[in-house]
Protein: Allergen V5/Tpx-1 related
Organism: Sphingopyxis fribergensis
Amino acid sequence: MTIGATAAVAAPSRFEEGVFTELNRFRSDPAAYAEYLRDYRPRFEGKLLVSDDDSEIDIMTREGVAAVDEAIRDLRREKPLTELEWSDALARAAADHVAVQSRSGAVGHYTKGSGPGERMKARGGGPYVNEVITYGHHTPEGVVDQLLIDDGVPDRGHRHSLLRPTHRYAGIACGRHPVHRTMCVTLMSQTRDGSPPPPPQRVP
C-alpha cells in the first residue's frame, strides 16, 4: 500500500481514494455503518486499542470501548446523506498541511497560526471549509472509524463534521508522520473550493 501526498499533487493515491470511498460508504447509510464499528469492541484491553495487524501501532485511548458504543448508538439514528464529490482544490490545501507536519511532527489544525481556512485562501479559494485529521491509522476504514468514534473529543466534533448534510465536496491528503507514522487530512465544504455558499433560495 502506498501512502503519500505532496503539496504539488492533487491526484489521489490509492489510499486517499480508499478513504474517500469509505467516507461515502458511511454517508450513504450511517445506520448500517454503525455495525462495522462493533469490530473494535474485542480489540480493547482496558483503554488500549490493540492493532489488528503488524503495520499499525497500538493506540492508548481516553475512553475505551464506551466511545465506540456511543458512536454506534448515535449512528443508528442517522438517515442517509448525500455522497461527497472529490475536489482537487480541497485536496491541495489538505496536502499543504500534510507536507508541513510530515517534516515537523506537529499535530493539530494550525501551523504558525495558519489554519484550514487560511490554507484554502492561499490556494485561491475561500475559507468556508471544515477539516478533520487522523493520526496513526494505516487503513481507510481505520481513518473513518477513528473520526466517527472521536475518542477524547467531548463535543464529538469530527463525527458531527462527517454527518454535516451541507457538505458537498471533499479533498483528502494522507502521508507519513514522524511521530504517529501516518496522518490523513480531509477538507470538506459546501463548495468545490471553499468559496461562499450560495444564499438560500427564498420561498415565494
In short: Residues 1-9 have pLDDT under 50 and may be disordered. The first helix runs from residue 14 to 28.
